[in-house]
Amino acid sequence: MAKIVDRAIWNIGPLFIVIAVILVDLCALAYYLVVFPYTYNWSDASILRRIYIIATLAFTFYMVYCIHFHYYMAIRTPPGGTADSGRTSRPDQTSEEQEASLRQVLLEMEEYDEYPRTCKKCHQPKPERAHHCSVCNSCVLRFDHHCPWIHNCVGHFNHRYFVLFMTYMVVSAAYFAVFSWRPFIISIDFVNTEWPYYFPRPLLAFALILAICMGLALGALCAWHYYLILTAQTTVEFYNNYYEKGLAKSEGEIFVNMYNFGAKENLKRFFNIGDRYRWYTVFYPIPIPPRGAGRVFEKCEEFYQLSHSRQRNQIRANQEVQDLDDMKDI
């Protein structure tokens, strides 16, 4: 039964993408054909007002482009598989990145020598934080979840695009809702038949309701993902860590998330902010890779302060949970 559901989710993925694009573009059309001309009158505006109108138009174009760019990148960017290679170095790397790449290789060699892993489904070497997606039928690096709306897994190499897509969607939905409520009131006033816009009244009303619903739904999901980013977890790891935290508490010990470097550093690591990509590059709609190859991850100082037996037990526990997840529908 699970395999039938997984196959259905995979087959319906392209339809979900088409629906998502249509709904987003419907709201964009409603804004430019109704809300914008209703809110801003170019002919009677002063010079400063016209500059403000142009700036507003540029801002909305930027938001619409960022939504489409990050959605496209989330769909088209492979999340990262265990068979991927050649992602650990580039000719144009900075000294910081070269040092990080070398550290990644050494960590991977150490990790595999001490804790060799093999996926129980695809029978390939399995890096840490990787999980087997039953929908895609492959192991995904730093797997978070499979999203039918992008017809792809959310993993190491496209998680950043997925989060930014949601961020721009939530901000845009709130912006649209704030500025479209007056035209919305007019659109539902069928007593007054005057409607000087090409965009149909019912579609404008639908667009506002849709924007509110999408903003609330994606807002909750977006807030959840930012919480996971700030605490250095994926969705899968959150539930595993919640269990391990309760188990450690019952034994009088303190649970340590080995990947947690603090909220600020976690945010920088997720968005790959450093010498090469400064903080403002987060606002650039350009392809930016994540930090590292996604096959092995540095551990925080608190983790190395634990006894060697606790370190080993925690790593083994994570591996056992990965194996249980992968064995679910075999």
TrEMBL record:
Residues 116-241 form the Palmitoyltransferase DHHC domain. The DHHC domain is required for palmitoyltransferase activity. One of its GO terms (cellular component) is membrane. InterPro entries: Palmitoyltrfase_DHHC, PFA4/ZDH16/20/ERF2-like. It is a multi-pass membrane protein. The chain crosses the membrane at residues 12-35, 47-67, 161-184, 204-229. Coiled coil: none annotated. It holds the Pfam family DHHC. Belongs to the DHHC palmitoyltransferase family. It is found in: Membrane. The keyword NAD does not apply. This is Palmitoyltransferase. Its main location: membrane. Signal peptide: none annotated. Its EC number is 2.3.1.225. Keywords: Acyltransferase, Lipoprotein, Membrane, Palmitate, Transferase, Transmembrane, Transmembrane helix. It comes from the Eukaryota. It catalyses: L-cysteinyl-[protein] + hexadecanoyl-CoA = S-hexadecanoyl-L-cysteinyl-[protein] + CoA. GO terms for molecular function: protein-cysteine S-palmitoyltransferase activity. The keyword Ribosomal protein does not apply.
